Amino acid sequence: MKINNGVYLLLIAIILTSCHEAPENIIDINSFIGEPKGIIIGFVINTDSLALEGAEVTITQGNLNYTTDDKGNFETSQINVGMYNIEIEHPDYQTYYERFSVEDGVIDTLYFEMLDLGSVDIKFVFVSEGSFEMGDVWDEGNIDEKPVHTVTIDDFYLSKFEVTNEQFVEFLNQNGNGNEGGENWLNMNDSDCRIYETDGTFYSVVGYEKHPVTEVTWYGARAFCEWAGGRLPTEAEWEYAARGGDLSQLYLYSGSDDVNEIALIDIGDTYQIGTKKGNELGLFDMSGNVWEWCADLYNSEYYSESPNTDPPGPVTGSSRVLRGGSWYNYPNFYRSSNRYNFNPSGSESYMGFRVALD
User: Fold this and answer.
1) Tens of pLDDT along 282-311?
2) Sign of the alpha-carbon torsion through 297, 291, 245, 339
3) pTM of the full structure
4) CB atoms within 10 A of CB 348
């Protein structure tokens, strides 16, 4: 649609379909951009005729934020070319997060899929495929962070926050506190556990509902992820996402070179998720709060033999990888390349996890 000043109106049409109505739940975004000056009049969103009613769509770029009104519509003006974030919330589906590019002179169609909410609401961030230098690129780490090597990661999703006590309570109330590897998924015998059971029902300690769950074994973390429709991230996926993916600014920690911007230090306990600044992808607490279980077995020399594309971790080993450091550690442990490992049947007050999706 050409208008008088020689630029085109940017139209975005969004179509949502539910899992129950079609094999794929499609969000179809069509971008029409005109003249080479990169001036765009605005977004026009109308969700009145969506197959999936009740969705709230938010588009952001920097400090700009556009959200559909109570009628499911919004219009904007003076939108620039560049990268945008789109977030779609619906009470019956997992919150969807994606980045898309508005380019000059390009007509583009993007397809997104809305996933069933399942039993627990987890916000996910899309991590776009890309390559990075994995390991101690700052030459400040340990021997198991070397050699630095190029790794390519495929698209995946990662939960925006660490799994919380209240989310793990939902899992326990549906599945019980199972036993794998000779231990219960959640070590409720430890006084540091923030979940308790009364008359067969599990509860979070008041005030800790939105703190990351701790005292959970690797088996318990895996069981939760599978119940939520996902999996644990691989170690390589975790580091790529912690470093900011394809938006990485090569910070020492996840989201900053200043540890105080992204984590609370010396407080002696966990803290509410999302309290501090997120990283380039909008992931929070990847440095600090709690260590996070990864899918991989641990091998201190794995980087010497790791494949270059989506490394799955070694095939043998007795311990599992954890990443990110915790409230219990000095900031040196918060570095995005730092590695740790632990018995998969073990649990501590400084160990938790987050969920990945393909």
Assistant:
1) 999 999 999 999 999 999 999 999 999 999
2) negative
3) 0.78
4) 19
